[in-house]
């Protein structure tokens, strides 16, 4: 099993969209390396003949009747938004401009 | 009447039903107790006094008018801050949700409101329920009422401490790997994780969706049964909710309290004892087994050989699911928004700045671990292997339940440790959940109830596990053990906790 380097932690943190300070990166790299080494033991018993389980109880698809229901009032939803305008969420630009 | 805050929920309900006491008096007594002990305990993040008293007045009026009301109507309750509540802030213990007021109620909150339970407030917790000590809350530590220098357990330390400190007779917790049962163990209270799907998850801020389950936090087994029956049962808004009636939980608790367990097979899990378990914890566990045997139960040893891999599987599955569930905290639609200190203000950079500033260290650790475990090249080795271990653990349970009706173990390997003791050692913190995690991976129900004090004078928890959908067995065996222990102790274990109010 590979170990988790500082560069790898920085790459994964970028994938997860979390800004980290250099100090946080140093600390997390050390901690995560120990944790990953410990949890990697699962592969000892996870042999090819064992099926995976994703859910604790067997379930088939659950559908509700295809009938429209009212959604939450827009004012209630926007009340806690960081910014809104004209009954919509106001968000930063999606793409950087040259 | 004696101190109202010392009554169990069932006793309080009886007094309210007999009109010996009003809900306003009961609610005010608990608000007064909160005012007196919160400076020391800090179980609550938000106190909902006016709304709780308004609910109490409404229930009193309905009772006075002769209306039929729910048995628990007017009995106040505390709710963990991971459960969304309309018109009350809901933070999940995180800065990223500071001041957020949800636009809707969780289904379980709707049921509490419909039954007329005054909601006293929202309780402290580890941020997004990640932790075993409540020290990962962004809003300060909760202190264990047995020793204010010690942890109240986690993630639901606030709910357990509130109930242990007589600030509330009832509370709601959530349990993803032990967050109801481990706090119950270290505070001398009762906590139940129902069968997965037994209580609606609609309106819980999701940590790991295949593991999360809400349940009761109380001082007695009967109180847990009463609350479980109120919040449990099918909810069309949760597609994983079990579409069947609950078994009779209150009936099972009443039957158990008679103390007769003739014919019940109790399986002791060999792998959840021994090395790493404190001697005082093991001693109280052994004494409880002897009592169960006296009550007519048959004690058998069962082996669950894959439980030793449960912790590893859990700390892959939980972070993986959490990394996906917590992606919604991106500064766009609710909660905190932080703009980057320099450079272009694009959505992507705002997300990263917001999450960097809004999440605490344990949340960052687990999201990054989960993102790593799910990333290309590692998925099969980590997440895929963990899901296979989940199958092996389910098979262990299935085999064990052919030999036993319930399984038992100590709830946690140790009593409450000191605040700060394990904060810098994540793996040591994770080990607190070694006995509680298998139930979440398999979806089976579990209960922790107090089984005495360890050599250090702190409470020890006794865990009971039952097959999926057989939650009633927890209540039967739990109520029997509780009745026998209270007879040995001549009272409740919390009678031996230190008095928190100066001058009393």
Give the helix proportion of chain B (percent range).
25-40%
Tell me which CATH architecture of chain B applies here. Alpha-Beta Complex
Looking at the structure, the CATH topology of chain B is: Amidase signature (AS) enzymes
Radius of gyration of chain A: 22 Å
Order of helices and strands of chain A: HHHEE
CATH superfamily of chain B: Amidase signature (AS) domain
The level of helicity of chain A is 25-40%
Mean pLDDT of chain B: 96
Instruction: Spell the H/E element sequence of chain B.
Output: HHEHEHEHEHEEHHEHEHHHHEHHEEH
Number of strands of chain B: 11
Strand adjacency order, main sheet of chain B: 1-3-2-4-6-5-10-11-9-7-8
By CATH reckoning, the class of chain B would read Alpha Beta
Which CATH C-level class of the domain at 6-44 in chain A is it? Mainly Alpha
Tally of discrete structural domains of chain B: 1
Number of strands of chain A: 2
What do the pLDDT scores of chain A average to? 90
What global shape of chain B is seen? globular
Poorly predicted sequence stretches spanning 5 or more consecutive residues of chain A: none
Count of helical regions of chain A: 3
């Amino acid at each position: 099993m590979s170990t988790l380097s500082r560069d790898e932690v920085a790459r994964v943190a970028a994938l997860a969209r979390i800004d980290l300070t250099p100090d946080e990166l140093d600390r997390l790299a050390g901690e995560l390396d120990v944790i990953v080494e410990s949890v990697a033991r699962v592969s000892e018993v996870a042999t090819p003949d064992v099926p995976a389980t994703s859910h604790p109880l067997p379930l088939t698809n659950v559908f509700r009747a295809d009938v429209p229901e009212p959604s939450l009032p827009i004012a209630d939803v926007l009340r806690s938004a960081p910014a809104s305008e004209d009954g919509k969420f106001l968000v930063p630009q999606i793409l950087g401009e040259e | 009447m004696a101190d109202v805050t010392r009554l169990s929920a069932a006793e309080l309900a009886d007094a309210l039903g007999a009109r010996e006491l009003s809900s306003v008096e009961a609610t005010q007594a608990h608000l007064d107790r909160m005012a007196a002990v919160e400076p020391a305990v800090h179980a609550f993040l938000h106190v909902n006094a006016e709304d709780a008293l308004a609910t109490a007045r409404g229930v009193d009026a309905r009772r006075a008018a002769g209306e039929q009301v729910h048995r628990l109507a007017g009995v106040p309750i505390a709710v963990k801050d991971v459960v969304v509540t309309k018109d009350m802030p809901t933070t999940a213990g995180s800065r990223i949700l500071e001041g957020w007021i949800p636009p809707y109620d969780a289904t379980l909150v709707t049921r509490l409101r419909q039954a007329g339970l005054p909601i006293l407030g929202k309780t402290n917790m580890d941020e997004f329920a990640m932790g075993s000590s409540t020290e990962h809350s962004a809003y300060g530590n909760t202190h264990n009422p047995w020793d204010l220098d010690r942890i109240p357990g986690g993630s639901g330390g606030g709910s357990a401490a509130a109930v242990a400190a007589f600030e509330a007779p009832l509370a709601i917790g959530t349990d993803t790997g032990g967050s109801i049962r481990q706090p119950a163990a270290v505070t001398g209270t009762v906590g139940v994780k129902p069968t997965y799907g037994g209580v609606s998850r609609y309106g819980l801020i999701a940590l790991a969706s295949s593991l999360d389950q809400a349940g009761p936090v109380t001082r007695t087994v009967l109180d847990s049964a009463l609350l479980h029956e109120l919040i449990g049962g099918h909810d069309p808004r949760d597609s994983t909710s079990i579409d069947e009636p609950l078994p009779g939980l209150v009936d099972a608790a009443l039957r158990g309290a008679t103390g007769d367990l003739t014919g019940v097979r109790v399986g002791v899990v060999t792998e959840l004892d021994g090395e790493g378990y404190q001697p005082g914890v093991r001693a109280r566990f052994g004494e409880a087994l002897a009592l169960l045997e006296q009550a007519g139960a048959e004690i058998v040893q069962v082996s669950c050989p894959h439980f030793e891999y449960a912790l590893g599987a859990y700390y892959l599955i939980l972070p993986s699911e959490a990394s996906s569930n917590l992606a919604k905290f991106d500064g766009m639609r609710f909660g905190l928004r932080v703009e980057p200190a320099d450079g272009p203000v694009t959505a992507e950079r705002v997300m990263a700045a917001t999450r960097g500033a809004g999440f605490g260290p344990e949340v960052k650790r687990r999201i990054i671990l989960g993102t790593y475990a799910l990333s290309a090249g590692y998925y099969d080795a980590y997440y895929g292997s963990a899901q296979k271990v989940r199958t092996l653990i389910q098979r262990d349970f299935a085999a064990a339940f052919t030999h036993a009706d319930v399984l038992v173990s100590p709830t946690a390997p140790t009593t409450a440790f000191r605040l700060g003791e394990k904060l810098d050692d994540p793996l040591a913190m994770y080990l607190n959940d070694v006995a509680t995690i298998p139930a979440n991976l398999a979806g089976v129900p579990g209960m922790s109830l107090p089984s005495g004090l360890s050599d250090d004078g702190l409470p020890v928890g006794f865990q009971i596990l039952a097959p999926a959908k057989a939650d009633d067995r927890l209540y039967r065996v739990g109520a029997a053990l509780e009745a026998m222990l209270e007879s040995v102790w001549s009272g409740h274990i919390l009678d031996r906790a230190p008095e928190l109010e100066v001058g009393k």
